[in-house]
Amino acid sequence: MTEIKKRVLLINVPSRRGKSGLMVPMGLLYVGGILERAGHSTKIYDPHLNDENLTLFDRGDYSVLDEILEKYNPDIVGFGGIASSYGRTKKLSGHVKKRSPSTLQMAGGPLASVYTLLLTNTKVDVIFHGETERSLPLFLKKFCDGVSWSDVPGISTRCDGTMIRNPLAPQIENLDDIPLPAYHLIDLKAYDTNMMYLLTSRGCTNKCSFCYRHMKGHRQNSVQYVINHMKFAIDTLNFSTFSLLDELFNANKQWVLDFCDSLEKEKITISFITSMRADKVDEFLLKRLKDVGCTEVLYGQESGSDIILNEYRKGVDAKTNTATTLLTRKQGLKCPVQIVIGSPSETPQTIEETTKFLINLGKGVLSINYLIPYPETPIWEYVEQHHLVPDVEQYLDEIAHWGGSPVLNLTRVPDNIWRTWSFQIKTNVRLALLKKEGKTAEYLSLLIVGKIALFGYSVLPKKIIQFVRDRKVYG
Ligand code: B12
Ligand code: SF4
Question: What number does CATH give the domain 7-165?
Answer without folding.
Answer: 3.40.50.280
